[in-house]
Please model this.
Amino acid sequence: MKKIKNKISFKLFYNDKFVMFFSILVAFISWIYVASTTQESSIFTVTGIPINLPELTDGMRYFNGEDLKAEVKISGNALVVTNVTKDDIYVTAADVSFITAPGEYTIDLVPKKSGVKTDYSFESSVSPSNVNVFVDRYDEGRVIPINDKISVKSVDPSSYASQTLLSRQTVKISGAESVLNSIAEVDAEYTFTDTLSETTVVKAPLVFYDEKGNKISSKYITPDITEVDATIPVLDVKHIQIVPRIVNIPEKLDFDNDLISVEPSTIELAVSKSSNITSISTSPIDFSQLTKEKNTYTVTLEIPSTCRNINSVENAEVEFDLSDMTEKNLTLSSSNFVIQNQGANQSAVVSNKTLTVKIIGPTSRVNLLSPLSVTAVIDMSDKSTVTEGYVERPVTLEFKEPFAQCWLEGSYTVNVKLSPKNSPAQQSSAGQ
Model:
């Protein structure tokens, strides 16, 4: 049996794969033996070592350098140095006691052993040998307004680019205190190079400036946003008619609107593309105050807030052509007064014996006008519950045909005496 085993073992050396494996194994064992017994040092480079900077005093901190890496060459027994990793070495600052105020500093670096593997030496200094850091106190954040610096170079001739709308009006910035203190303004900047013909939205980056207009790097600060949505509303330009708004026109007055002129008659407005606006009004004109002497009014234009006043026209002049009109004083008597809408238990009598009013209208009609041509109406609707005493009531005139183009100039009132009506029971008692 012993002869058979030796024969089999010997035959293994005729197998190429076995011979190769056996050779590698012998070489590895020999290398370990030589490496562990030799006194000659090996040099090995450890890379990717994190740089750990010590904490600072007086509330200051580093604003860069956290992600910096270093490397260092070590020497020693080959078996030892080849097993040293970045976790076994600590790279830090040689000294930071000279850092006493915010600013930029150059800090020298030194390596230290931090693992259990210590049977090696540092062959060289750290690479890099120093790092540049920025040191400052941390500001939790302040809110700064955003300025609109959106520039439009060209707009379609039939369109109007309205004021830019920013999605945010302010930005909150935190970071290095001295950098934050130097920020004088924050601008949303963008320039449209194409011709605009419709409402457009873009992303406008935020740019920080100091008092001298120099750009400030955002390297040591952190804004809560870095850009805003900037909307450029593009509106249609239209010529809109100006329509005078006239109040206190008598109900039955047949006034010819062709006698009214407006200057300017139209205004150029920028309106949204979906708008169907065709006219705008003026501030009210009191028709009852219209006279031959006062027939021209300068009134403001009531422009909707959704429109843009392109030419900055704010007023219009409204003129009433009264050249063919005549004024006439007319004295009314009790036969002209008609009281309407009395209360159920109210007796009303006009105290005025006469009332002289001024009438204005076409000359051909006013010349024929007499007290018989009008009715002076006194409305008691909002005094219907008053049953005793005197009240002052306004007078309106109703013109009979063919005087429908005449009207009362100004406003007039009469005094009305009120007394309660006698009930049937009282009348019966009075008769006995």
Summary: The chain has a mean pLDDT of 88. The domain at 236-320 is CATH 2.170.120.40 (RNA Polymerase Alpha Subunit; Chain A, domain 2).
